[in-house]
Amino acid sequence: MGLSGKAGIALLLAVLALAGLVVCVWMEISRADGAASKGLGVPLDDSWIHFVYAKSFGTSLRLDYNPGQSESGFTSLLWVILLAPGVAAGVWPALWAKILGYAALLGCAWLVFLIARTRGSTTVAFAAAFVVAVDPLMSYAAMSGMETVPYALAMLLAAYALVERKHRLLAGALAACAWARPDGVILIALVWLALAVERWPRKSAQASSGRGTGYALIVGVPLAAAAVWCAYNLAATGRPLSSSYYARAGGLPSAFSLTALAHLSSETAQTFPELGGLGSMALIAAGAVAAFRRAGAARMIPVVLLPPAMCVLMGGELMQVIGGTFPGNRYLIPIFPLLVLLGAESARWAGELVRDGVARRGGRAELAEPVVALLMIVALTGLPSTHIENIRSNAARFAAACRDLREMQEAMGRWIRDNTPEQSTVCTFDAGAIRYLGERETVDILGLNTARFPTQDPAEVKKRCQFLVTYPKFSEALIAKTAAREIHSIDVPAATASADRLMAAYDLRGVNHAD
Predict the structure, then answer these.
(1) pLDDT at 454 > cutoff 60
(2) What is the dihedral of CA 81, 84, 85, 88, to 10 degrees?
């Protein structure tokens, strides 16, 4: 590439930063039916759930959904901790989440570059990083207010530390994965497998102060992090994992059922449509073979094995996305950079073969790697026109979902704040924006945030709540059995970010003590 030293690295980083920023800004300025996302919206209510806990943690160092009521109804402890300083400082939570999301996207691209460069060509490494920086699903996730891209960053940091034999960094990255999402244990197990296969860091010079030090850190730190998180969950909810896991999870038997395995193919194809072609699949498969052909192959075990493991478990119905609005499956998106790394392995291998062949024939061998790198980009993203169309379609979906959240859940939350007594308790189907913007004690009738409350029991709903906010289509029995009186409704035609187009608020006062 002709670039070396600090100036060359700075230029590469600047190009990646600009490329990623262009796609992220495209998401933000896209319009849906004449309404822009305005740079402040998020495309699903789960983001607001994290904002609720982040506000609590940033102001009181407690994980309270309602003041004084510790819960764990969120996907990612790590994401809550990262969000907390900005939210506590008064930054609009969606804006702060987008800033962190973009930083995480840039970090993912840069780590892909660093990992791929240690394996060979700088040109191929930069091409791989560029693919990650401009991927529309990665940008969608970065701007969504969710933990998806920061989780990918933690996984890549672990992969980089493993490749570079930085065991302290690896221990910290694995701890971050343990707090990022419950499925982080898959990566932790694969890293331990890689170390067992290579018997590192016992043979590493870095372990000269004590052969067991490296293993103790890499095993002990993530185990301690997981233990702290499980202990909090047990104290707060009586269960070792977050409430959101129990509300969404089908368990391991569901992940390996015939239905789940049949579902796996469609989920994976929807999540990575650009990788469904024969060329990209062959590139990734060849990359898995190439990764094990070189010295240090064991250190690539997580990169090679994590994508299929995540696809089987997270794409095979272990986790259910209720009302999810991400294109594809958001639980699979974090493995995209790893698939790109496998593509880079394949491209590096092909580049070496082509270069050697051209050199033997007296040709210009220096052109081999740039040509192969360009072909790799096309294989993983499609032609430029196809890639631009993918960005455009995802940006339109992003804007439509942000608009729907703003016009329904966010609007309902503000209505609750302005039209209900301050000491009211609200039972609600969607638990994020209505709790954050409504500023009322809130009970989630899906069970995400209320582990000790029998949320589907009409008698308990009448006893505890003064107001009910739900979708009439999904709560007909609950509405009828509580004798709820409708007092407000919001209709968003063709809603994509909600369970239904119609959401309504009901008054339960006066019926609280009925049978």
Answers:
(1) no
(2) -160
